[in-house]
Specification:
Layout lengths: L1 H11 L6 H26 L8 H8 L1 H22 L4 H22 L8 H20 L7 H5 L2 H25 L3 H27 L14 H20 L5 H24 L1
Helix pairs in contact: 1-2, 1-6, 2-3, 2-4, 2-5, 2-6, 5-6, 6-8, 8-9, 8-10, 8-11, 9-10, 10-11
Length: 270
Amino acid sequence: MAAAWLHVFSKTWRLYLPWAVYASLALAVWVIYVADRLLDVSMLEGTPSRLEPRHRFHHKHRKVFRITLVVAALVTVVMVVTMMPVAIFKYLLIGGVLVAGFFGLSMISTQDAQDVAHTKNIIAGTTFAFGTAVMAHLYRYEFGIEAMLFSSEFICFAVLCILNISAIDLWEHAARSQDVEVKASHELALTLPLMLLGFAALGFALTDHDITAKPGDFSNRPFFHAILTGVGLLYVLNRVRSRFSMDALRVLADVALLIPVLVFIAASNS
């Protein structure tokens, strides 16, 4: 998924990225994901009732995952050091702080299943968006990091990632609770930000006028069309979530971030 959205950023910012950029990003995201699952397993090992299928799978094959995690991490480091622009080292500290904050909050938030880990979800979504966008930004040599952090593309994508991650937590907690007010508050906590993001993306798409673009160049509109698609799919999932199991919703939430990439490609080629 990260590699797919990296392609979206590269086309939006009119960049050519070598294959090593996509490979290193995909490996890094996989390493963080597996490390988070193994951390969850170690912290929930004393309460097997809280282990979900994805946790049980990683627990069953934890030795294999530990070995492959180390190998993948080493390969990623080698690729970053030998094949990435030197500028990447300027951003590794920011990425490292975000990742450290994510794992720190993971160790705290998993202790209480009754609370929605909003802060952890915000850090997780921001970390994913930063890691994805910065790999493309490395090749925008004339721009500083502020140009990326305050760009409408990065902000919209980061918010979409945060809402995508938060949706699962909100759906899980709403399903557990019998309190109507709690269910309503969780519904509003997802619906309102989705609406705001949708209006923002629509506004950016309608006001995109790149007078410097040449024939054959990509405009920024397809990017925001993709964001709008993601917003719409998450909203639909939120409305029909009672028809699906939580495991199915997790898969569908990922699909809701992948389909917008196809929309972007179609819109860019039209």
